[in-house]
Amino acid sequence: MNLQIFDRLESEVRGYIRSFPTLFAKARGAILTDADGRGYIDFFSGAGTLNYGHNNPVLKQRLLEYIESDGVVHGLDMATVAKKEFLETLERVILRPRQMEYKIQFPGPTGTNAVEAALKLARQAKGRTNVVSFTNGFHGVTGASLAATGNSKFRDAAGMPLSNTTFMPYDGYLGEGVDTTEYLERVIADQSSGVDIPAAAIVETVQGEGGVNVASFRWLKALEQVCRRHDMLLIIDDIQVGCGRTGSFFSFEGAGISPDIITLSKSISGYGLPMSLVLMKPEFDIWSPGAHNGTFRGNNLAFVTAKETLVHYWTTRDFEDTLRRKARIVRAWLEHIARGYSQGRFSVRGRGMIQGLVTEDPEIAGKITARAFEDGLVVETSGSQDQVIKLLPPLTIEEQTLRRGLDILERSTAAVLGVPQAEDTIRFINFGGAR
User: Could you give the 3-state DSSP secondary structure of residue 389?
Assistant: First the structure.
């Protein structure tokens, strides 16, 4: 595959092209096809942007109809029919059934825009500059978002001091049985700790880029209580693990918490179109008109597909039922790999349809994903040392295709380790590994 034009003209900052070195031409559902006609099963989903697959036919049809009708495409923050219908649908389908009352802000089109707006708003609301973030957290690569991001790979590229953020240990960071919210409580309560009282704490319920680290519901509830005791806002960054990725629309629903601010992006448009949201409790909507703006806040094409996504997938519980079954298949197969090949070298973690195969040796993880790509599977690594193989298949993936992808991952693992494929794998291929 000739990729010379990218080597010659595109910046060295390009990343994913190095992991997946082919020229992609088409995509449908869970399959990417390159210019030579070779298909790849997609366990990457645009880093979580394509929860509903590539070129979802239901969404595509509605989008084509809107374009054909000369519907408004770019609208800044003006009122348009597409925005009106999206807001009405979000309230009716998502917020009211969950008894959630939030105002909605449309910041710039990407996740980091939503985080920047959320942190700015929290600091204004509380009149404080410090924010608590957590080890291995990832919130974006601009300004305040980067200051709240833990990975040195991203922080080192800032070119300026990153301040006004205090990092605290995430759930499990200090080992099993250690409640790290107790440390957070102690540091904030102690006026001699050297930590300024924060305006907010920002957290991912599952850290995707950080290595598929999962916060327990108990820990999230304890974090919320710390925030309440110390007059801090709780910001949930649901950009990668929201929109159904963990099994429910919001990743925190099972925890029984009520975030003050929620950020959404990636799969909120449903079709891979740029869009992000900040949901805030009404009492914190203290913006003055135009205080946080941007040219591309009104992507009406994204409003159209986002509305259709909510109507098609989230008006009943049927979609969530299919997610639970697929999640069981993925988890069972990964645990099968860990048992059958690791000799203690692998473990599994995750929730719903974001799962990670954790290796002790980052080099092995990279070799497995590279071999998987050669065999027709697109899957990435994550974590502080890229030691976690992170699975993000489309939520709409057919079960047969899901099993095929998992079989490729297993065969790649066996090939890299130089061992034969486990004899009982046929059970997982035929029956999905879980019932």
Answer: strand
Six-digit token pair at 303?
Answer: 């409003």
What length does the chain have?
435
> Whole-prediction pTM value?
0.96
Beta bridge mates, 205: none
Which SS3 state, helix, strand or coil, does residue 214 take? Answer: strand
Q: How far apart are CA 19 and CA 311, in angstroms?
A: 35
Phi, psi of 87 (to 5 degrees): -60, -45
Alpha-carbon gap, residue 405 to 428, rounded angstroms:
12
What is the per-residue pLDDT across 62-76, written as a single tens digit (0 to 9) for each? 999 999 999 999 999
Assign residue 122 a region (left: φ > 0; alpha: ψ between -120 and 50; beta: otherwise).
Answer: alpha
Structure tokens at 72: 């408004």
Strands 131-134 and 39-42: unpaired
Confidence check: pLDDT of 241 > 70 = yes
Angle ∠(100,244,77) on CA atoms, nearest 5: 60
- Whether 42 and 31 have beta carbons less than 8 Å apart is answered as yes
Listed residue (248, 247, 252, 221) closest to 236, CA to CA: 252
- pLDDT for residue 435 is more than 50: no
Residue 333 φ then ψ, to 5°: -70, -40
Contacts of 1 (CB under 8 A, 6+ apart): 21, 22, 23, 34, 35, 36
Give the C-alpha separation, 118 to 142, whole Å. Answer: 13
> Rounded CA gap, 23 and 409, in Å?
22
**Rounded Cα distance, 184 and 165, in Å:** 14
